Every structure is written in C-alpha cells, then in structure tokens.
Amino acid sequence: MFTCRFVTGHSKRGGLPTDLDWAAVVDKSASTIFYMGSRTAGAITNRFFAEGMAGDTPVVFAANVGRADSWIYRTSIETLSEKALPYEGDGPVIVGIGLAFGECPTAAETPFRIDCRHQTPYHQDCRERTSNAS
Fold it and tell me: How far apart are alpha carbons 16 and 2 in whole angstroms?
C-alpha cells in the first residue's frame, strides 16, 4: 500500500515554494506528485536527495499526460539531479517521486483490460490486446 501526496511544483514567483515542510514531504513511506514542476524538477530532486532520500528512489517525469504527444521519462533522484531533463516542451508536467513509481507498468505491460477509446500511436498494441481479451 502506498500513500501519495500532491504538491505544487512552483510558487507564484516561479521557484520552489518556500513554505513547504520538506521533512514531511520527503517521507520515505509516501510518494509525492509535483504538478507544474517542469522548471523546478532538478531543484525538487536535489532537495529530496539533500534531505536524505536514497539516490535510487524512482522518479517519473510525465508531460502532456492523456494527450497524443504524451511523454514519460523514468529515472532516479540521483540521475535526474546530475543532469537536465531531456524534455524541451512547454506542456503540462507532473513529477512523481517515490517507491510507487518504481512499480509503474506501461500500457503494454499491464495485464488487465485497458479502455482504448483514446487511441494514440503510443497505445497501438493496446487495441490489439483488448480485442484478443474479449
């Protein structure tokens, strides 16, 4: 069982929120999703690393979720804090950090039926798998 919390990825001034209780946010027993975190993803992961989160803690960076041009990047806190993200778009972004994200299957890896009404090139095998499952 995982606990998940949602936290804003930037303040009105554009940087990390200054009023976050980082000791509580960096709770190893929970996973955190930062919304609107594209510009601060590196700072967020650096802060998690500085607060003692293990370097191999999973991170998922997702842009344009639910859209035809969705983009997902899986890495770890240590890797992300060492380099810039290979994403240059300006779409909506969420950053997930924590053990729950180490167990995220892709649509192709999911063993149960998936609703494929929204088809994109990324979900091509989904249509084939669900038609065979019927």
Answer: 25
Strand pairing of 3-8 and 71-76? unpaired
Domain ranges of the chain: 3-103, 108-134
Tens-digit pLDDT profile for residues 67-124: 888 888 888 888 876 666 667 778 888 899 998 888 655 555 544 444 444 444 444 4
Strands in 21-104 per DSSP E: 30-35, 58-63, 71-76, 93-97
Q: What H or E segment, with its residue span, contains residue 80?
A: helix 77-82
Question: CATH number of the domain at 3-103, please?
Answer: 3.30.950.10
Q: Quick one: tokens of 95?
A: 């950053």
Helix (H, G, I), strand (E, B) or coil at 68: coil
How far apart, in whole angstroms, are the C-alpha atoms of residue 90 and residue 63?
9
- How does DSSP classify residue 91? S
Could you tell me which residues come within 8 angstroms of residue 106 by beta carbon, excluding any fewer than 6 positions away?
Answer: 72
- Global pTM? 0.70
- The owner of tokens 């998940």 is 4
> Residue 87: is it exposed, middle or buried by C-beta count within 10 angstroms (0-12/13-18/19+)?
middle
